[in-house]
Amino acid sequence: MPNKTHETDVTFIKALAELLNENDLTELQVKRDYGENDSLNVRVSRRQEVAAPVAMQMAAPAAPVAAAPAAAAPAAEASPAEDPASHPGAVTSPMVGTVYTQAEPGAPSFVSVGDQVSEGDTLLIVEAMKTMNHIPAPRGGTVKRILVEDGAAVEYGTPLMIIE
């Protein structure tokens, strides 16, 4: 039986990694309880979006530049992953909490990609300390990207969506 559990755990972890990539998430943490004293804690995160490589480049600028000609393409791919936060149309989280894209389970989402929004329209909710905080659109425009999933944990300053 333990071998079967191990195989299902590996499949579960692979599915989490795919979910992380498909939804452009930086980190995902799940606890799976099997019984009273048996559980699995999994944390899957992306290494490319961590600020440590930037600090390494500042500490030793000559080494990464000298070794970077072959790595220039991966660096170019990493910049779009970091781009949403610096995008002029980015709407960022004003607090730490949990994101909800709909008013209640089963209800339609507040906004979808391609929707036109006006300044002040509710884009989503961030729950912090059992308080539901409606996040309004800071300006009117079209929702170009939604960067978070329903139920995802966010930090202060996390880009939530792009409005142009």
From TrEMBL:
Residues 66-90 are annotated as: Disordered. GO terms for biological process: fatty acid biosynthetic process. GO terms for cellular component: acetyl-CoA carboxylase complex. One of its GO terms (molecular function) is acetyl-CoA carboxylase activity. CDD domains: biotinyl_domain. SUPFAM superfamilies: Single hybrid motif. Keywords: Biotin, Fatty acid biosynthesis, Fatty acid metabolism, Lipid biosynthesis, Lipid metabolism. Residues 88-164 form the Lipoyl-binding domain. Pathway: Lipid metabolism; fatty acid biosynthesis. InterPro entries: AcCoA_biotinCC, Biotin_BS, Biotin_Carboxyl_Carrier/Decarb, Biotin_lipoyl, Single_hybrid_motif. It comes from the Bacteria. Residues 66-83 have a biased composition (Low complexity). This protein is a component of the acetyl coenzyme A carboxylase complex; first, biotin carboxylase catalyzes the carboxylation of the carrier protein and then the transcarboxylase transfers the carboxyl group to form malonyl-CoA. PANTHER family: OXALOACETATE DECARBOXYLASE ALPHA CHAIN. This is Biotin carboxyl carrier protein of acetyl-CoA carboxylase. It comes from Roseovarius albus. The lineage of its organism: Bacteria, Pseudomonadati, Pseudomonadota, Alphaproteobacteria, Rhodobacterales. The gene is accB.
